[in-house]
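Schema walk-through. Below, the input block comes first and the output block second. Nothing else is stored per chain. Lengths vary across the set, and this one has 282 residues.
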Amino acid sequence: MNLFVTGATGFVGSNFLKQAHALGHSIKALRRSGSHTRIPLDFEVDWVDAELDNDLSNHFSGIDCVVHLASHTPNPPYDTLDKCLYWNVLASANLFQAAANSGVRKFVATGTYFEYGSAGDLHERIPPSCELRPTLSYPISKATASVALLGLARELNLELQVLRLFQVYGEGEAEKRFWPSLRKAALAGADFPMSAGTQIRDFINVSDVAKKICEALKFSEVKPGQPHIRNIGTGEGQSLLTFAQSWWEVWRATGRLIPGALPSRPGERPRLVANIEDIHVA
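--- output ---
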């Protein structure tokens, strides 16, 4: 399959490129000029050096599927709401429109479990049909983007899958995020101060996420104008502290984990675990 990939130099995007190439897909990928992939690649990519909001119409010839992994400020501190809405909603919708106008009919877009917000508190495992009640600029913009892209798919009779990613970790992750920070301390023999770690999350390795996105490229049972929403996780909940302790043992850390040394983030949800069996036809 001939793919056009956005967000290809990012954490998830870099790992996706590696697996998609191994499966024999042909890849054309968008990147900002001068940017590099989060993990090294041992193959060549047909790079398009441009911004997401540029006119990309002449790059969709022969493309079978757009894989939209780009997102604006997915890690705190988030950008302002207006900028998140511009990049995550308006620029993304315009990209889809341009690709559709060029004859592309298949689309995969990634979202985030933060779109569920407080509605997730009502479920032991959150179904993809769950109401969206996000707070903060980035989750609000991603929820709005989901609604916009789903509507566009219905209007233009496109085959679309929206994949909401749960707590992704692994190689290529931004250094300031939890797992890389934990590993750095463990390998240095340092203590690691953290929050109480009582929040329950659905942790999934980025390599497994990349595999799930590749599997979505089969478009099994996806029909034009009837977009699918799926959760990408393990379906199992684990406390942040238990997650930290398990990796602390893997790395044979000599320092101490210090739970409760830091406060939890404002608005932290107590439990966010995926229902991975259900597929919602939006």
